Amino acid sequence: MTQLDDAIKLCTEDAKNQSQFYDLFLNSLFYIPVLEEEGKPVSEDGALPLLVEANDKTYLMLFDTIGRLTGWADDKAKYLAVTGHGITEMSSAKIYWVLNYGTDLQKFFDPEEINWLKDIVRKTKEKSQKQSTADSGDEGGVE
Q1: Hey, which residues does 60 pair with through a beta bridge?
Q2: pLDDT digit string (tens) for 98-128?
Q3: pLDDT tens digits for 65-91?
Q4: C-alpha span between 107 and 97 (Å, rounded)
Q5: Cα–Cα distance list, 9 to 19, 20, 26, 70, 125 (Å)
Q6: Is 78 helix (H, G, I), strand (E, B) or coil?
Q7: From start to end of the chain, where are the E strands?
């Protein structure tokens, strides 16, 4: 079991633990299977995530270990490693996410939940930028 598995399990036992899960999610590294274009190396710039169509929905597959990704795909699967907050910032509004598909503690994210996470990430970035600007304005000091 991974830390995310533990956090998901705690959420199912008590909804009060959701904030712990979301904090861990946003600050964790995930492996996203990508489509490999002939003759092009996989890189963050221009790599296309593998999207799965099912039940009239489009899913972005997320895995918290390479082993889980290759267990779902295969050992030759190409992937990118991206943080949870990075995924949140880049994700489209109409895409669903599936975390650790095929495991006992898989988690599905719907667009409403993803938009809520997007809002949290945006507000956190704004607060951080304001704090950074305020800190840089304190350089005058006393001589």
Answers
A1: 51, 97
A2: 999 999 999 999 999 999 999 999 999 898 8
A3: 999 999 999 888 899 999 999 999 999
A4: 8
A5: 13, 11, 17, 23, 29
A6: coil
A7: 29-35, 48-49, 51-54, 57-62, 79-83, 96-99, 107-109
Tokens of 53: 């169509």
Amino acid 140 reads G
Q: Tell the residue number behind the tokens 């994210």, with chain if given.
A: 109
The number of helices, as runs of H, and strands, as runs of E, in the chain is: 5, 7
What domains are there in the chain, each with its CATH number? Answer: 3-36+46-118 (3.40.1350.90)
- Packing angle of the helix pair 111-136, 18-26 (nearest 10 deg): 70
